[in-house]
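Quick one: examine the sequence and fold tokens given here and explain what the tokens say about the fold. Here goes:
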Amino acid sequence: MATFERGPIPGARGGRYGAARTFPIIEIFGPVLQGEGRMIGAQTLFVRTGYCDYRCAWCDTLYAVEPEQVQAGAEWLTVDEIVARLDALSRHTPWVTLSGGNPAIHDLGALVARLHADGRKVAVETQGAVFRPWIADCDVVTVSPKPPSSGMKTDYAKLDRFAALPQANLKVVVFDEADYQYARTIHLRYPTVPFSLQVGATTGEDDTAALLRKLDWLAQRAMGDAAMGSALVLPQLHTLMYGSQRGV
């Protein structure tokens, strides 16, 4: 597995010149039900940032990853503008989920603080390779280290820092047996961290019946493995509900 490398990724604009700091936002949407990890089924709003330090083989959000697509599609928004968009969607939805791309590459500390001040709870989704202090301020940190099918390589020293957070949970997407064995390794390395196995969906190929067959295989595999007794086995709820649509 080779690590995907790219050049410097823009994180914010305007700060050096005294203007309001802005961030590349691909989409803000919701409320929807969270489809993954420890918060599956929770009502949340989403803020999807642009750019990522990984390039997974099966990535289903390339529009938030590839620099050319991000540059074409992102809006550079201030914290006030992001919050205004969220408020326009729903003032009563308790959770805001920061996703990407990889939101951890941006300095979102001011946004997290503002959301907390407004009475929101904040979750972040990341792969566990880039740590920033603001991540520790989030209420839920969902870390999804990437299995062999992604083509990415895990830096366990970096992942250790995320797993040590009391609000962390780990989620591994599983497409095949090699991915399952990787997930098993992750769970055994961090046995006290809440852990879930999630069915991998192939965009444009897997219909509901195929996803349920994969879920059954993964469930049977985990239930037959004593080491996985405390692991949750989950579908990609949003994929079952909405397919590959954006903004859900």
